[in-house]
Every structure is written in C-alpha cells, then in structure tokens.
Design goal:
Strand content: under 5%
Number of helices: 15
Largest sheet: 2 strands, antiparallel
Number of strands: 2
Order of helices and strands: HHHHHHHHHHHHEEHHH
Shape: globular
C-alpha cells in the first residue's frame, strides 16, 4: 500500500471515530425535547456527555488537519465548494458548545430553555449536513479542469444527498438515545429504550434505502456490498438487543453500524476523493490530490507515535466516567 492510499484510510478512520463518538453527542442533544420531562431530566441527559463531548469533537479537528496536510487539493475543493454548508456546521457546533457551558449559569427557566434550543439545533444541523456533504462527495459534484466546484448550494440539496442527511440524522439520534439508556437509570432509562425502539425502526428503513441507492453509485462493488451488508445487520442487531434490554450490546452494535457505514462510503469513493459528475477527467483522485512523499512520510511517523496515545487517552476518559448518571446525582449537586 502506497502512502497516499494509506492516508486515505487514515482519514477514513478519523471520520469513523468522529461520527461514532460525536454522533451520540448529537443524538443526546436532539433527544432533549423527547425525553426531557423536566429540568432535572435534561440536566441528567446533558451530564451523560458532559465529560466527553469536547474531546469527541477533537476528532473532526484532527480529521480536517490530516485532510489539509495529506490531500491539499481535496481539502481546497471541498472547503471552497461546500463552504456554506461547512460554515453552518461550524456555527452550530459553536452554539452547542456555548450552550453546554452557559446553560447552568442562571436558574431562570427561560434562560435555560433558550440554551436548550441552541443545543437541539446545534446537534440536528451538523447531524443532517454531514450526511448531505458525504453523500455529495460519494455521488460526485460538478468540477472544472482546475478542480473547482462549479455548482451552487441548491445543487448540493439533491434527493440522494438529502436522503444521506436524513440517514445520518436518524442514525445519530438513535445512537444518542441508546447512549442515554446506557448511561441513565430509572424512568428516563426506560423511556429512552422505548424511544430507541421506535426511532430504530424508522432508521432501519431509511438507512436501507440510502445503502441500496449508494450500491448503484458504487457499481455494486463487492467490498462496498460487504460493508454495507454488515452495517445493515449491525443496525438490526442493535434494535433487537435494545428491545431485550441489553443497552451495552445495543449501543456497541449501533456504534459498529456507523463505523461500517462510513467505511462503506469511503470504499464506494475509492480511488477517487472527489468525483466530477460532469466529466470524469476532472475528478480528484488519491494520486492527483495527495501531498508529496516526504510530507506523507513525516505525517506517517507522527501518526504512528501520537494516534495510539490519543486513542488510549480517550479510552481512559470513558473508563473514568463509565458510571450511570441519575436524578439523585443532580439533586444532590444542587444542594
């Protein structure tokens, strides 16, 4: 495997980590109006991700930096062509982060409700737009000979891309609700399991439609079909396990669903990184979008040293904060 191909899969790994980890953050935020009967419930839900949400978001920073360094042409085309969509994602993430930090600063209910709304919107917008963005990348967008995007925002909002956005929205929502069931106790835990069961059925149908549509785009690549099939099986297994009350296994299979689905999309994309829908000759590929061999070599040694440390540190963080969050914890902290 040459260095550009290696870094294509490292970037894929980083986005897998981001969507799996920040995916349930988005889901928890979107679940606030569905599961938060009162302020204590909402505080419990937010506290389930309180120690880890900012660490989860670092994955997208590392992924973006790796994309910039390893594939500068891909980075330039992506961030210039998808500028408005990515800006909306950034603004939403900022609003969500600010809300987590400022929501508890005043006891006023209107103050809290405004920041709750910002958390909901700041979670739903990225969950939708990441799917729209990746679906457009896989499907291809119009590019000129200089690899510049020649379409507009409406071109990105095509039926396939919107289906991709709806798929990620539902996957992350279900993933987050399963995390709430895993990390809480009592009535909230029971209601989260019920909501995950209902949302899971809709997610299975929508995700299946998206994976089948993508199979046609990927020309029924055997590797894509294998990964997409495993993702579908993992999603069904997650739903079944949730109905049986095994939250840990259900959440684990939900995480596997997202990981396999993202890998399936990268497999459908390979060896292109930004296909040109108007003329294949204008497509960006691993070969013509990558940095120099020297740059990729230095990056490879850096990743070999630091990537395992980052993964180990994050695993340790999750181990430290592994216990369930209960209403009693919130009321005790208030006194």
């Amino acid at each position: 495997m040459d260095l550009p191909t290696l870094w294509f899969w490292i970037v894929a790994f980083l986005f897998v980590g981001y969507f799996v980890l920040d995916g349930f953050d988005f889901g928890v935020g979107m679940a606030l109006p569905f599961l938060g009967k009162d302020d204590v419930d909402r505080r419990v839900m937010i506290n389930t991700i309180g120690p880890v949400w900012d660490l989860n978001e670092t994955w997208v920073i590392v992924a973006g930096a790796s994309l910039f360094a390893a594939f500068p042409e891909w980075y330039a085309t992506l961030f210039s062509g998808f500028y408005l969509a990515l800006l909306l994602i950034l603004v939403a993430l900022i609003l969500r982060g600010v809300s987590f930090e400022y929501r508890h600063q005043r006891p006023d209910s209107r103050w809290k409700s405004r920041f709750d709304l910002m958390i909901i919107v700041g979670s739903a917008v990225p969950a939708l737009l990441w799917g729209v963005a990746f679906a457009n990348i896989v499907q291809g967008v119009p590019l000129d000979s200089g690899h510049n995007y020649t379409g507009n925002l409406l071109d990105l909002l095509n039926p396939y891309a919107l289906l991709g956005g709806l798929t990620t929205l539902l996957l992350f929502f279900t993933h987050g609700v399963l995390f709430i069931a895993l990390k809480t106790d009592g009535d909230l835990r029971v209601r989260a399991r019920r909501l995950a069961a209902r949302a899971g059925l809709v997610t299975i149908i929508v995700a299946a439609a998206f994976l089948v549509w993508t199979a046609f785009i990927a020309a029924f690549s055997p590797m894509y079909l294998l990964l997409a099939g495993l993702a579908a099986l993992a999603l069904i297994a997650s739903w079944i396990l949730n109905t049986r009350g095994t939250e840990g296994w259900s959440f684990g299979f939900g995480a596997a669903t997202i990981a396999l689905a993202v890998l399936a999309l990268f497999t459908a994309l390979f060896p292109d990184v930004m296909p040109a829908s108007n003329d294949p000759a204008n497509s960006l590929t691993i070969a013509n979008a990558s940095s120099t061999t020297y740059t990729l070599t230095v990056m490879s040694w850096t990743a070999l040293i630091f990537l395992p440390l980052i993964v180990a540190y994050q695993a340790w963080t999750y181990w430290v904060f592994r216990k369930r969050v209960t209403r009693e914890h919130i009321t005790e902290a208030a006194h």
